[in-house]
Design a protein that fits this description.
Elements: E1 2-4, H1 10-23, H2 35-46, E2 51-56, E3 59-68, E4 78-85, H3 94-108, E5 113-119, H4 123-131, E6 135-140, E7 146-152
Helix pairs in contact: 1-2
């Protein structure tokens, strides 16, 4: 079931996120975050942007949200997306379901474009974003370490 985030979700969201901090390069973070840092993040984002949870039997299986991409006025109708799935639930289509809901809500909020920054090694996320209509635009950094995909909505 997909629902909006609640502050009580913070512990499970932190656990999912920190799994990827500690076991991958998907987050671009190198140090696990605290629950307080995640709670502050949830509060800041959910105030202005959609933030969704995928829940199975009372447990969070994944989450996604949109957030500000740039602070300049001309970029106000563009948002960056974030999606993380609990490792035991990857490959089940949960990320795609969450992202479809997020894209729909971003359209409803009159956003014009969504951006996702994905590490090139994260092939599952790259494939999912392609299926959702995101197009690879450019690579950030001097190698194929990170790519940015964009979807006009």
């Amino acid at each position: 079931m997909i629902r909006e985030v609640r502050e009580a979700d913070c512990r499970e969201i932190t656990e999912i996120y920190n799994y990827y901090v500690e076991n991958s390069i998907a987050t671009f973070d190198t140090i696990p975050v605290t629950e307080q840092q995640m709670l502050d993040n949830i509060r800041n984002i959910a105030t202005d942007y959609p933030y969704y949870i995928y829940e199975i039997d009372g447990t969070i299986a994944g989450y996604c949200y949109a957030h500000s991409w740039k602070t300049r006025k001309a970029c106000q109708l563009t948002a960056e997306t974030t999606v993380y799935i609990a490792p035991q639930h990857t490959g089940k289509g949960i990320g795609q379901l969450l992202m479809k809901r997020l894209i729909k809500e971003c359209r409803n909020r009159k956003l014009h474009a969504l951006i996702a920054c994905i590490t090139a090694e994260n092939t599952g996320s790259c494939i999912m974003h392609e299926k959702l209509g995101f197009k690879s635009n450019f690579t950030i950094l001097d190698s194929d370490d990170s790519l940015t995909v964009i979807k006009k909505i």
